[in-house]
Amino acid sequence: MQVLVRDNNVDQALRVLKKKMQREGIFRELKQRRAYEKPSERKTREKAEAIRRARKLARKKAQREGLIVDRRKKKPLDGRGPGSRPGMFNNSGPPRF
User: Maximum CA pair distance of the chain?
Assistant: First the structure.
């Protein structure tokens, strides 16, 4: 793994390195290797991880195909959301100051 340091900015390079290590799963692996893991526990953990990955992939595929509604997507403002009237944020009474 390689990170370039630009303009002697070591802090930014460290952040980039940590992000890359996080994506690769190095921190998770280090945490797991701190203590011995029995082979049977390892198999059950890996099987559970595989099931989680498969479910996540299937969920994302169904969302792309429109079979499942993506709850994380924000609904478009139709004039009744925050910011529709200045000073009021979905309150039914007069604005409080």
Answer: 65
